[in-house]
Amino acid sequence: MDLQRLQTFRTVATLMNFNQAAEVLHYSQSTVSAQIKTLENEIGILLFKRIGKSISLTEAGSKMLVYADKLLAIKEEAVAEVTGRNMASGLLTIRMPQTVATHYLPPVLCEYQPRFPGMRLDITSCAMHSLEKELRIGTVDLAFLFADSIGAKNLQSELLRIEPLAIVTHPSHPLAARKSADFQDLEGQVLLLPKSDCGYRMVFEQALVTERVTPATVIEMNSIEAIKQTIKAGIGVTIIPEIAIRVDVEKGEMARVCWADDLETGVLMIHYKDKWRSPAVEAFMDAMRRLSRSLVSIPAVGG
Fold it and tell me: Domain spanning 162-264: which superfamily?
């Protein structure tokens, strides 16, 4: 696959305009169109929908853009490495839970970004079902999960730390006044649960089944902040990393339920086993290790 055509494709996909892409690339508009057509013929599928003078990416085009970004970043990295010009540029694609991104990432970037000012970072939540494939083919460089272990044999995980979990609700909820609560007290409750990348959710739901607890309903959300705001509005109960609700509990906007047993989850750093990692990836991993060692465990609030 020709890298020049991939560069043209990425430019068109970014600008969504053939003429503007031609100006940026210093090509004629016909050359840009011909390169896109050649690329589409090569892979056997349309990458753009053309409606009049407007264009948009097809589903295949959206997928291709991810690979184009990665392949072009690898090219830049390879040139820098073999020529000895340590430009510290390229693309670093990371998957991590929202809570890790919110509470771990800012101090890590304060250390990392000055060392690698030219690196582009793409940081999004995990999709566990596709993680092994993404790490294997290189569209994802590194991943983080809330889990105690990961079963995929080709993935290597490193436990960074143990993160306490909390059952939380609105301060006016009856559970907030209980001196001790357990799974049976969740019978008939509205449960708010994160939608992805949380191994602790699976363990929590398995415990509900084992204890034969039937909630009134389960509301799934793909945003931790949305779950917190719903709790603050007086709806439901959730399980969440303590680090995410410490300030809210201290302000009295949320209440930590005094749970009968300790709840916790591991924070895993995951990469593909025996696969070469660039200095930029290794540096990010080291920064996460240092931060994890420096974090002080959050004391229990109200329990």
Answer: Periplasmic binding protein-like II (3.40.190.10)
Do the beta carbons of residue 138 and residue 111 sit within 8 Å?
Answer: no
- CATH for 88-160+266-294? 3.40.190.10
How far apart (Å, rounded) are the C-alpha atoms in residues 187 and 202? 18
Give the residue-averaged pLDDT of 140-149: 91
Q: Are 155 and 283 in contact (CB under 8 A)?
A: no
Per-residue model confidence as pLDDT tens digits over 15-39:
888 888 888 888 898 999 999 999 9
Query: How many Cβ atoms sit within 10 Å of the Cβ of residue 154?
Result: 12
Q: What is the pLDDT of residue 301?
A: 38
In whole angstroms, how far apart are CA 12 and each of 18, 20, 50, 91?
A: 6, 8, 12, 19
d(CA 133, CA 88): 26
| Rounded Cα distance, 55 and 3, in Å | 22
Please determine, for residue 277, whether its predicted confidence score (pLDDT) is greater than 70.
yes
> Residue 254 in contact with residue 167, Cβ under 8 Å?
no
118 — pLDDT class (breaks 50, 70, 90): confident
Cβ–Cβ < 8 Å for 121, 115: no
Look at 118 and 57; give whichever has higher pLDDT: 57
292 vs 15, 112, 123, CA distance in Å? 39, 15, 18
pTM of the model: 0.73
Class of 3-70 in CATH: mainly alpha
Where, residue-wise, is CATH 3.40.190.10 in the chain?
Answer: 88-160+266-294, 162-264
CB 166 within 8 A of CB 242: yes
